[in-house]
Amino acid sequence: MDTPISFFSGFGLQDVLFMAEAAWRTLLISLISISLGTLLGTLFGWMLYEGRIWATLFLAPILDAFRSVPLIIQLVLFYNFVPIIGLNLDAFQSGLVVLTLYTASLVANVARGGIEAVGTPMRRAARSLGMSYWQDLIYVVFPIGARAVFPSWVGVALGVLKDSALVSVLGYVELLRASQILMTRTQEPLLIISIAGAFYFALSYPISRYSAKLEKRWSQ
Amino acid sequence: MFDYNFHWRPVIRSLPDLLEASLLTLQVATLSMLIGIVIGLGLSVIRLRMRGPLYWFATAWIELARNTPALFQLFFFGFGLGALGWHMTPYMIVLSGLTFNNAGYLAENFRGGFQAVPETQMRAARSLGMNLWQTYTRILVPQVLRIVYYPMTNQLVWAVLMSSLGMLVGFRELSGETQFFASRTYRIFEYFAVTAVIYYVLVKLILLASRLLAMRLFRY
After folding, report:
1. In terms of CA atoms, which chain B residue is nearest residue A79?
2. pTM value surpassing 0.80
3. What is the CATH number of the domain that holds B59?
4. Chain A residues with CB inside 8 Å of B70's CB?
5. Is 70 exceeded by the pLDDT of residue A83?
6. Total structural domains in chain B?
7. Which of A155, A168, A205, B209 is most buried (CB neighbours < 10 A)?
């Protein structure tokens, strides 16, 4: 009867599953915010390129602010701002909004670089072949520009994947938060943090290698 | 809908403390950059010139730093090494985490920089009787630092933004101090809004200073 009561229990198989599920949540929030942020950021990038005075006066400073304030501050700020205007968003939704805008602000610069990478002679040639502005944009600028900035876009996407760890401050149980919970319970921080690191590395490393390879091939 | 009363007075009252904490932010970011530059140079030279265990050590450092979240790196230095009986103060956790991250990213920049310096410079310096150490410190490294000046400025900005993660390991730099005050007064939104502005100003000041410095340094 007098077995000592322990608050801690060992690291078991169900904990690995718990971490795998958390890794899935990391992947989920990153994938959605990267996709939405890329669409929005491409639009912003086009606006920065085309809209002259309005874009430089209004859009550029706002996008710049997203890049000059730590993401963690943006998350806490937005999460506490939402109830003020009477909305009700949970940690996942708030994190998603902030990550999407953050991605968009980074992609905007990449997209503008992509449009600028397509030379004016090429665009004039497209127009003089009878293409409309939108045809030129969709069939000439997009394929060439996207290829030129693809490696930097991969860099942004991987950055967002890693930065999604910060959504844990709002209480969203993603990979790093899950490992913190397990560390508290099992008291085996080194093992668990290493597993979390291995998860991130396994997600990020193959993509960065693949993108580096593509960059090398395309630059030849 | 908008029945929230903003209270800015407590924030204004603790503004001196926040500004003092932002000096700590700048200090830890700068220090981690300086150490990171030295280590990063070492890592990139090892990767370019050496084979064997040292090469693999440098590669592992760079890839781990670039493919895992900065927050994971902080947790590793904080909790992971703590399990080995190596306890660090919050300041040391943030400094070592940021230095690890900076060194990894800078090493990749330096590698590109070293490859941009013509190989003949090395031969010329060696045939003038300089030894390897002199060739690196007097001929190659000054040129590399000049080539990667702008990426280095960006990295410093990143270091300032990343230091905000200190808040999660109990380090009272700008973000940690903000959280401390915010949780004492429950004026979370107001405090973090002001902190966001402080970060924005800090980043702009750093960029301005680096531009001015560049004008002085790169005058021919």
Report:
1. B189
2. yes
3. 1.10.3720.10
4. 162
5. yes
6. 1
7. A168
Q: Is B75 on the interface with A (CB under 8 A)?
A: yes
The answer for residues whose C-beta is within 8 angstroms of residue B192's C-beta and 6 or more apart is A73, A76, A77, A80, B178, B182
CB–CB contacts below 8 A, A to B: 106
Mean pLDDT score, B184-194? 89
Calculate the alpha carbon distances from B60 to A62, A96, A194, B74, B176 in Å: 37, 32, 14, 17, 31
**Is the per-residue pLDDT at A57 higher than 70?**
yes
Pairwise pLDDT comparison (B187 vs A161), residue with the higher score: A161
Average pLDDT, chain A: 89
ipTM rounded to 2 decimals: 0.88
B4–A176 CB contact, under 8 Å: no
What are the C-alpha distances in Å from B104 to residues A166, A182, A212, B141, B155?
Answer: 20, 28, 16, 17, 11
Nearest CA among A166, A121, A163, A161 for reference residue A141: A121
B109 close to A (CB below 8 A): no
Q: Is residue B125 part of a domain?
A: yes
Please check whether residue B66 touches A, CB under 8 A: yes
Average pLDDT of span A208-219:
86
pLDDT tens digits, residue range B90-131?
Answer: 999 999 999 999 999 999 999 999 999 998 999 999 999 999
* Residues of chain A contacting residue B67, judged by C-beta atoms under 8 Å apart: 158, 162, 200-201, 204-205, 208
**What kind of architecture, by CATH, is found in domain A31-149?**
Orthogonal Bundle (1.10)
Q: Which residues of B touch A196 (CB under 8 A)?
A: 72
Reading the block at residue A8, the tokens are 């801690």
